[in-house]
Amino acid sequence: MPKYEPVLLKNILTPGYAGDLAAYERAGGYQAIRKVLKEYQPEQVIDLVKRSGLRGRGGAGFPTGTKWSFIPKDPSVPKYLCVNADESEPGTFKDRELIERDPHQMIEGTLIAAYAIGAKVAYIYIRGEFTLGAKVLARALDEARAKGYIGTNVCGSGREIQVWLHRGAGAYICGEETALIESIEGKRGLPRAKPPFPAINGLYQRPTVVNNVETLGNLPHIINRGVEWYTSLGTAKSPGTRIFSVSGHVNRPGNYEVPLGIPLRELIEEHAGGVRNGHRIKAIIPGGASAAFFTPEHLDVKLDFESVAQAGSMLGSGGVTIMDETTCMVWAAYNLMGFFHHESCGKCTPCREGSGWLHTILGRIEHGEGRAEDLAQLEHLCGNIAGKTVCAFGDAEVAPVLSTLKHFREEYEAHIREKRCPMGERVLAHAGH
Amino acid sequence: MLSEAAKTRIQELFPRYPDKRSCTLAALRIAQKEQGYISEEAMADIGVLLELTPVQVYETATFYTMFTLQPVGKYLIQVCRTLSCALVGAGSLIRHLEQKLGITAGETTPDGLFTLKKVECLAGCGAGPMMQINDEYYEYLTTDKVDRILEDLRRDGKSSLASGPFLIPLQMA
Ligand SMILES: Cc1cc2nc3c(=O)[nH]c(=O)nc-3n(C[C@H](O)[C@H](O)[C@H](O)COP(=O)(O)O)c2cc1C
Ligand code: SF4
Ligand code: FES
């Protein structure tokens, strides 16, 4: 089936690939870091990655090379790299596969990034629930240390790069970069106000870069195969491939790596096997729970950062959730709001209180107790949350509400008018809080 | 109280960080592993070890959902209730577990064996419905599979139905 050449998933999709150091090296692994240490100054790596156009795969899609270039060059200032392996965005499960099945790829990417920004220490922040991932990574780090890829003299270059595993303990917000930093410092994961940005004042008040697992996984390939090859994949402004995590009502849920810019329809119908049991698509979340819902009218939208944003949502984490016509959209928004209410860190009042109110109102509409004024109330609340909080979580929590209100308003109205969920009492509701 | 072995394991982490406080999460995890939950005494010990006030340890311990300050059952069953899993049957699975165990989510069975909790997305969305029991993930769940897992745990303390390294879609041989 693979219609496109997999890049990040190539090893994983090779039958018998065990993911240990020997297997990774046999597949050409750790050539890129050797090359970088021998042939490139850090500046040149940054320049190369800038020219590749690589954009962050963690959520915001910020150009990676540009982000690195904000790090001060003064060699006397300690700098840090944090690997964001927190993966908690509902609908997203790509980093887990990259970690559990090909840990060395992300470790090599980590070493390249650390070298580029001049960091002697990198911390891999892995979400607490990933027990298996933590085990796999710990073993891989030991292997890489024993072989001299990590330590005081990386590949005999005289460079020091230490990489440590740091496990989280269950908090979605710790995926937000400044909350992640606070969490590594041993505190509650409360996002910091920006500016100052981590590039100037991050972990332990030092210049810090936070990069996603998939972002880093791209680096060895960009080094090995060059900028021209990389930019031949994807679109001009969104080069490369992307791993989409497809879940929900499809026949073949899974992680699919495709060039950026393929139509949403192709991802769903050709790769994920189409909608289950001959049902029809009703709604699609294109980029994790924080992204606005799409409808079947959006199936021809191209999956790249610009096109998805232009169509009113975002590519975000690459988590694509499909809902067929048996799904109640009020219920879907209510379910997600349960998530946001539970995971709000509580630092800002609009988010802490607002998420609770949104959850309550959505719940009463779904349960047939909605009031005529509720829809205006929801919109009013959303308007007082988005853009008024310390971190982007506030914007995220209103996206499911505003987009379902926009595309499926008549469904909300039917709930209120008929004083019940038109889909009937379903066991789905049991998954509530 | 933290054992000496636990204290040593925490101290071994110090060289990784410029600041001992960074070991808080690891220390709490080690304490919880040892006692099944995090006691006030353990938090006090961690405070001494990491040179933190009791409040600094407590505020961190209470922020993260994986830390429990009260004892829980021998098997902590955490079922994902978030959208992708809910779309493919997490709701009926939770209802089945509640009936099977005779408790509602949030409770522990009278014999202290099972605690049932609903939790948020665990990054198993494409393999849902799914749950985590202690350190293991269980995916592609059906009510039958859940019954077998519970039986396995009761009988052997483990189950071969736990998920291995993630690979989805499953590659057909
Ligand atoms: C509420 C919130 C949660 C986030 N969760 C994650 C996450 O789980 N994993 C991740 O890589 N980025 C997450 N991000 C994005 C990070 O803040 C950050 O942009 C990213 O790690 C940067 O890496 P990149 O440039 O390689 O994408 C989250 C952002 C927000 C606002
Ligand atoms: S927006 Fe929400 S999650 Fe973000 S800092 Fe404020 S309260 Fe915390
Ligand atoms: S929605 Fe259940 S694991 Fe993600």
Describe this structure in words.
The complex is a heterodimer of chains A (433) and B (173). Chain A is of the alpha/beta class. Chain A contains 17 helices and eight strands. Chain A has helices at residues 10-13, 21-26, 31-39, 42-52, 64-69, 94-101, 103-117, 131-146, 177-184, 213-231, 264-271, 305-310, 329-343, 349-366, 374-383, 393-407, 409-418, and strands at residues 80-85, 121-126, 162-167, 208-212, 241-248, 254-259, 281-285, 319-324. In chain A, the strands form two sheets. In chain A, strands 3-2-1-4 form a four-stranded parallel beta sheet, sandwiched between helices. In chain A, strands 6-5-8-7 form a four-stranded mixed beta sheet, with helices on one face. The longest helix of chain A is centred in the middle third of the chain and has 19 residues, at 213-231. Chain A is globular. Chain A starts with 9 loop residues before the first helix and ends in a 15-residue tail after the last helix. The relative contact order of chain A is 0.12. The mean pLDDT of chain A is 96. By secondary structure, chain B is an alpha+beta fold. In chain B, 40% of the residues lie in helices and 10% in strands. Chain B has helices at residues 4-11, 24-35, 40-50, 54-61, 83-87, 90-101, 143-156, and strands at 75-80, 114-119, 131-133, 136-138. In chain B, strand 3 and strand 4 form a beta hairpin. Chain B is elongated. The N and C termini of chain B lie far apart (51 Å). The mean pLDDT of chain B is 95. The interface between A and B is large, with 72 and 56 residues. Iron/sulfur cluster binds next to helix 14 and helix 16 of chain A.
Label this structure with key terms.
heterodimer; A: 433 residues; alpha/beta; four-stranded parallel beta sheet; four-stranded mixed beta sheet; 17 helices; 42% helix; globular; B: 173 residues; alpha+beta; 7 helices; elongated; binds flavin mononucleotide; binds iron/sulfur cluster; binds FE2/S2 (inorganic) cluster
